[in-house]
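At this stage, I wrote out one protein's amino acid sequence and its backbone structure tokens, and that material follows here:
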Amino acid sequence: MAQTPSTRDRLVTQAALLFQRKGYHGVGMAEILDAAQAPKGSLYHHFPNGKSDLALAAAHFAADQMLQILDASFKDADSLRDGVTTFCYKLAKLFDINDKWIGCPVSATLFESPTNTEFRQATCDIFQMWLDATVRHATSKGATEAKAHALADALWMTLQGAWSLSRVRGSSDPIKAVPALVLRDE
């Protein structure tokens, strides 16, 4: 029997979804509390600094979800190309089932407050975690350390742009095109 998520988990999950759809400034606390079916007091019990603490927790939750997708994509991949392609196609599917307008789960939350140094550092840390995981997977599939780092940079830079173009076009095709762009030399 499935365990009911805790109030904290519901707040984090709903905040992550809402921030991804509407951005940090586009979501009010009442909306998050309503979506999480949580009383107002529970917010400050779990997140003493309110929305900013919740945003950091939501970004880390979303980052962990992205990392799980990346790890799953490479787990049974026969090659670097297969891992990258599977990852991009999983992201394309996620884009397609989420109204084709959602933003990057981390940048949609944390980039909207450029003067917040804690948000900037968290964003830096999260992207570095994704880059490091990509390098680890690439080297496990035979890439040299230098090539793995170059691939990781190219993959995440291209994905960010492809995600934006997919939003503009209302199609996941740009996300699906990423492997061909970043693996030209493979």
